[in-house]
Amino acid sequence: MAGADENPQQVHAAAWLALGTVIRLQVVTQETQRVVDEAMEDALAAIQSVEAACSRFDADSELVRLMKQPAGQAVPVSPILFQSLQFALEVAKLTEGRFDPVVGARMEALGFTRHYVTQETLAWDEEASPESSYRDIELNAHNQTVCLKRALHLDLGAVAKGLAVDLASKQLAAYGFAGFVVDAGGDVYVSGRDLGEAPWKVHIRHPDNRLDSLATLSVTDAAVCTSGDYERRSPFNGELHHIVNAQSSGPTSIRSLTVIAPFTMMADAFSTAAFTYPPMEAVQLLEQAGLTGLVVTEGLDILRTAGMEDYLHEPIQ
Amino acid sequence: MAGQMNAKFVTLCTLAVGAIYATGYAITAEGHAQGSPFSQQSPSAAGSAAGTGAVATASSGTSKVASSATKKGGESTQGNSKTSQSGTGSSSGSGSSSTSPSKSSTSSSASGNKSSSSQSTAKYIDGTYTGSAANRIGAVSVAVAIKGGKIGSVQITSCNTHYPQSYIDPVLPDYVISHQSTSIPVVSGATLSTADFYYAVTQALAKAQNPSYKG
Fold first, then answer.
1. What average pLDDT does chain B have?
2. Which of A3, A12, A130, B4 has the most CB within a 10 Å radius?
3. Residue B12 CB neighbour total at 10 angstroms
4. pLDDT, mean of each 10-residue run, chain A (317 residues)
5. Residues 220-259 of A with CB under 8 A from B
6. Chain A residue with minimum CA distance to B171
7. Contact list, B142 vs chain A (CB under 8 Å)
C-alpha cells in the first residue's frame, strides 16, 4: 500500500435504496478503493439488517412476523428489534403517547402501505384494535422477548432509520477514516472532517423548496435529523403527511423541525416526537431532553433552542 | 434535569448500538436463524451467524462504489441485460484500479460465493441486473442484486439530474464526477424519493424474473 504522504485524500461516494429511502455514504480517506468498498459493504449490511428486522412492509421481516403472532404471547426477538422497541417505548412514555410506535393502523388508513421496491401491500388477517397503544407492548429485557397484549400494528420508522445510521456509522468508524457521512433519506450522521479538513456542512432543506437550503450547519461527530410536513404526503389526503400525532388527526402547525444529537436514533425519534407539539412546546421538549435544534413554524418563523447558534455555519437571514 | 434526561437517552442509544454490534446483527427468523451480513470487526458475529449455514452475504453483489463509476450522458435505456457487478463500474482514468467485487479479506469463506442453493422456483434468478428510466429528476440507473432468489440490494449507479448546479441535494455518484471530487453537500430533511427510482427498479426486476416461477 502506498505511503500516506503520496496519496491525497479523496472523497468516495455511493448510494442505494434501502429502508424505504435513499441511502448515501461518503468517505474521506487516503485508503484504496478496495478498503472503502469493504467498509461501505459493512455499513450497507448493517442497514439491511435493520430493514430485515424492522420493516413493516416486508412479509418476511421480524417485525411483521411478531405482529402476526397471537396476542398475549411472549416472543423472542433479535437485539435490533428489541432495542428499537425499547427506545420507541421510552420516547412514547416521555411524550405521554404523542409519539407512539403503535400507529401502524393509522398509517395504513392514510395509504402508507406499499413496499418501496416491490410496491406490494401486505394483507392482515386481523384488524388492529383501535384503542391499541404503546401501553400494550411488554418487553422482557432478561429474556429479550416482546409481548403484544392485543392485536396492534407497529411502525418503527422514526427509530429504525436512525438506528440503522448509527450502526452503519459504527462500522465505518472502525476503519479510522478521516471523515464520513451516513445519510438515510435526510437523517444524517457526520463524522471527522470533510475533504477540506473542516467540520461537515449540513444543509437543512427549505420546507417550501426542495432545491433550497434554509440554513447551513457546521457540525461533526453528530447526527442531524429533520422532520418536515413536505415529506411523503398521504396519497388519500394531501393535507395529511406521514408524521402522525397518535392522539389527534389534524395537521400540525410546524413546517419543519431539526434536531442535532449524539446519536441518529435520538435525533430521529425526537424530531418526529417534537413535531407533534405546538412550536413553543416543541422547543421546550428538545431543551428538556438536552438537545439542540430549530423549529420552522407555519409562518416560516424560526425558533431555536439554546445553543443552536454554535452550530450555525452562517447566520440565518 | 435536562442533563439527566439527555444522559438517559444517550445511555440507551449507547447500550442499544453496543448490544446489536456485539451480536453481529443476527435476525431471529422462523425455523433457522438467518444470519444477516455481519462484519469482521465484531468477533462474536462469526459465532452467532456462521453456524447456521444461512449466512446471507450482502457482500458480493452490493458494493459498487461509485466515485469512479462513470456513466455517459445519453445512456441507453436498453442496455445490458445482465451485467456482472464488475461490468458497471469500470474505472475511468484516474487513480483507482478496478478491484474484484469479492471480498478478499479474512472472515467467512461464505462471502463471495454466490449461489448457496439452486433457485429453480424462486421468483428471481440470482445475479445483478440493471435498469434505467427518466423521471422528474432526470435519468437514473440502478443495479439490482438478486441473492438467493430475493432482492439483495438496489444500488443507484447513475443519476443525471437536470437541476442547476446550485441544487443542494446531489444524487451520487455523478456529483463526484461532475464536480471533480470537491465536497459533496449533505442535506438534512429528505428531498429524494424512492419513487424516483421505481421504473428503473421495475425494469431491472423484469430482467431478473425466473420464467419457471409459479405464483
1. 60
2. A12
3. 18
4. 64 90 92 95 96 88 91 94 96 92 66 67 66 92 94 89 97 97 94 93 87 89 91 49 51 85 96 93 93 93 94 82
5. 224-228, 231-232, 256, 258
6. A15
7. 17
Let me know how long chain A is.
Answer: 317
Answer whether B148's CB lies under 8 Å from B56's CB. yes
Length of chain B, in residues: 215
**Half-sphere CA count of B133, side-chain side, radius 13 A:** 18
The answer to whether A290 touches B5, Cβ cutoff 8 Å, is yes
CA nearest to B1 within chain A: A288
A59 touches chain B (CB under 8 A): no
**Residues whose CB falls within 8 Å of the CB of residue B39, separated by 6 or more in sequence, listed in order:** A42, A45, A46, A171, A174, B24, B25, B45
Mutate which: A29, A30, A42, A229, vs B, most B CBs within 10 A:
A42
Task: Kindly tell me the burial class for residue A81, based on how many C-beta atoms sit within 10 Å of its own C-beta (0-12, 13-18, 19 or more).
Answer: buried
ipTM score of the complex?
A: 0.85
CB contact under 8 A, A202 and B188: yes
- Report chain A residues whose CB lies below 8 A from the CB of B166: 211
